[in-house]
Amino acid sequence: QKEVEQNSGPLSVPEGAIASLNCTYSDRGSQSFFWYRQYSGKSPELIMSIYSNGDKEDGRFTAQLNKASQYVSLLIRDSQPSDSATYLCAVNPNSGGSNYKLTFGKGTLLTVNP
Amino acid sequence: DGGITQSPKYLFRKEGQNVTLSCEQNLNHDAMYWYRQDPGQGLRLIYYSQIVNDFQKGDIAEGYSVSREKKESFPLTVTSAQKNPTAFYLCASRRQGGGYGYTFGSGTRLTVV
Questions:
Q1: Residue B111: CB atoms within 10 Å
Q2: Which chain A residues touch B90 with a CB distance below 8 Å?
Q3: Helix, strand counts (H, E) of chain B
Q4: What is the mean pLDDT of residues B19-25?
Q5: What is the pairing mode between strands B10-13 and A19-25?
Q6: B-chain residue closest to A3, CA distance
Q7: E strands within chain B?
Q8: CB-nearest partner of B104 from A43, A51, A100
Q9: pLDDT > 90? residue B2
């Protein structure tokens, strides 16, 4: 069973701080990694994707991938109250014919305090 | 604009009743998925389909059925055999190939009354 693990939180940060969200995965052959943001009562929204080791930046968001450590993270700089949401990590496994389905973590609840 | 439309947004089911949740996409995506989300739990895969007229069971398929007669449509029926159907149901679609994420619909909240 391919697994994706996230700290459920809640993670609480003050406004303007950096929020760091972490995710580990068990399938070493995984190739594609995604971060989704889900506001309460709403559906998940794709905010970042990353495929290669290193950092990928998009505005205030930075995704970091370390395949050797099987670790992917999301940094949110200058956190705003509007960033308060659950963040889901998703991984595309690459073995056993299962690469048609993403495997999701259970999500980390982030609260940004004004 | 392209996207995925789920309807209805809210649905109430009586005991012993079958209900069908609609999912339509105009993104020209080949693969479509149904997930269930319960409070405090992650997304659990019910069914998925990679091509028309073909679909596979996910992790919690019991009590559910689907069809994929058109590329654009992937309706989910919650049957009376599903004993605890109250949940938030999410439909998603994806381009074929391993490098793409899902696009989600806005969800249907099903409640048993």
A1: 11
A2: 43-44
A3: 0, 11
A4: 97
A5: unpaired
A6: B42
A7: 4-7, 10-13, 19-25, 31-37, 43-51, 54-57, 64-66, 76-78, 87-94, 103-104, 108-112
A8: A43
A9: no
> What pLDDT is recorded for position B39?
85
Contact (CB<8Å) B43/A88:
yes
Q: What single-letter amino acid sits at A71?
A: Y
The residue of B23, B96, B104 whose CB has the most chain A CBs within 10 angstroms, and thus the best one to mutate to test that interface, is: B104
Helix H or strand E segment including A24? strand A19-25
Say yes or no for a CB contact (<8 Å) between A43 and B106: yes
Instruction: Answer whether A107 touches B (CB < 8 Å).
Output: yes
Q: B43 CB contacts (<8 Å, ≥6 apart)?
A: A44, A88, A104, B35, B36, B37, B90
Look at residue A29 in the predicted model and tell me its pLDDT.
87
pLDDT score recorded for residue A99: 56
Q: Cis (ω within 30 of 0) for the bond into B75?
A: no
List residues bridging with A112 in a β-sheet: A13
Mean pLDDT of chain B: 93
Average pLDDT, stretch B1-8?
Answer: 90
Strands A108-113 and A11-14: what pairing?
A: parallel
With a cut of 50, list the residues of chain A below it in pLDDT. 96
Task: Identify the pLDDT of residue A69.
Answer: 96
Please say if the pLDDT value at position B94 is more than 90: yes
B33 contact A CB<8A: yes
